[in-house]
Amino acid sequence: MHFVTKISSSGSERVGSMTGFFKMPSAVVETPTAALLTQGGSVVHLTADVLSRVFSDSKLLWVPLSNSAHLENGLKAQGKGVARFAGLQEHFTCVTLQNMNEVTPSGHFEVDKVPLWTKHGKKMISADRYMDLMEVFKPDIILAIADSRVSLEKGYKRIAKSVDRTTNMLNTCVERYKESKELQNSCLVGVIVGCAQSRKFEDNIQNFLRHKDNLGGVALSGLTDGAEESNDVPVDKLEAIFKKVSNALPKDILHVVEGCWNPAVILTAISYGWDVFDGSYAVKLSNLGHALILNFDVTTNIETSYLLNLNDECYKDQFVPILESCKCLVCKKHTRAYIRHLLNTREMLASVLLSIHNLYHFDQMFYHARQHILTNTFEVYKKHIIKQYESYRSLKLKMDVAETELDHSIEVKKKSKLVEEVTNNSHKVNCNSS
């Protein structure tokens, strides 16, 4: 795989393309884009047939080992890689260690090994073992193994160990990559961690630059440990990191961001030249029963939320599409009321329909980003999307405050009633004693 920058806008944002895939040399995946998160090699909630109806072109599939390592024996027997094994040979795969949207237990490290948490429990993985698996999975893109399950709020000692492990593991991955005949058609991507500590961050950058001739890209990780609060880092703090890391690295390689990030964070990262995102955000929304309803028309002054919580009873009588302007399969045929009914009755079809809509709509966000970069209007588009996100956050904050005040009021009333009952009972006892 080769990455080529097609055009840069007035800022650092850019439109690029991934080309030169061995199995489909003429195929092109345009960036910025989001990969499609998989589970067991298949896109979450979608069969291969449904996926082909949602997207007619080739996509990048995000394959975490945490939910696909158990495929190893089957992949060995077949010998043609994970995309072919899953019946998705027209798409391209990027294999990594963990799904960063999943919360995992902390600790459990060994020297030059990191834990891989699977449905069968914890497995300690070394860089050599990881590259053994890559030779079996045969992905188009390999994210080097790293100790990246760490948030920005961790202390210096934890981050220092994260950087040291990641550095040593990258050295091993590069050596194995150079020696492996099976991986010559794959692109190896190095991982950067330790952004919260300047000195260790510089160590990680310098080690990456030593291997730059063998690396086709860089992945920024170590920003979140999967916990909800670590995915809610202020945009301005992340913006400084996106800028710092991007400026420290070569511009002619693929730039990848791991983590379950909202549209405001994603558009901010794109403005500093980041190209690929792991796609876990759309899956998270579908699992929660939420639907994306972003407005992409920058000429409209939008003040509404960018999300619908279709679990809410208010949608039970709304016989309209999730989004009138959306061209996805779901919005053409189904209504908010129907999907709300499916969620209420816990039907699996609810997750399927929401996934179709959210994956399509999320992909459209990147499509419009590319178009605005090409026309040098990306900054207008970014502000337009961020405004919708902030409207949602503001409304959610007000609702949370109101709910907290209501809970407090109910608690005060309960305590007042309890005190009254105790007082009355005490008075009765005293009267009886008299």
TrEMBL record:
tRNA-guanine(15) transglycosylase-like domain ranges (all copies): 19-390
GO MF annotations, alphabetized: metal ion binding; tRNA-guanosine(34) queuine transglycosylase activity
Annotated positions binding Zn(2+): C326, C328, C331, H357
Sections of the chain in a coiled coil: none
Cofactor annotation: Zn(2+)
UniProt entry keywords in alphabetical sequence: Cytoplasm, Metal-binding, tRNA processing, Zinc
One annotated GO biological process: tRNA modification
Keyword set includes tRNA processing: yes
InterPro entries assigned: QTRTD1, Queuine_tRNA-ribosyltrfase, tRNA_ribo_trans-like
Key word Ion transport present: no
Family matches, as Pfam families: TGT (PF01702)
Cofactor: binding details: Binds 1 zinc ion per subunit.
GO cellular component terms, semicolon-separated: cytoplasm
Record's subcellular location: Cytoplasm
Protein origin, superkingdom: Eukaryota
Subunit-structure text: Heterodimer of a catalytic subunit and an accessory subunit.
Summary of the function given for this chain in its UniProt record: Non-catalytic subunit of the queuine tRNA-ribosyltransferase (TGT) that catalyzes the base-exchange of a guanine (G) residue with queuine (Q) at position 34 (anticodon wobble position) in tRNAs with GU(N) anticodons (tRNA-Asp, -Asn, -His and -Tyr), resulting in the hypermodified nucleoside queuosine (7-(((4,5-cis-dihydroxy-2-cyclopenten-1-yl)amino)methyl)-7-deazaguanosine).
PANTHER family listed in its UniProt record: QUEUINE TRNA-RIBOSYLTRANSFERASE ACCESSORY SUBUNIT 2
Similarity comment: family membership: Belongs to the queuine tRNA-ribosyltransferase family. QTRT2 subfamily.
Name of the protein described by the UniProt record: Queuine tRNA-ribosyltransferase accessory subunit 2
Species of the source: Parnassius apollo (Apollo butterfly)
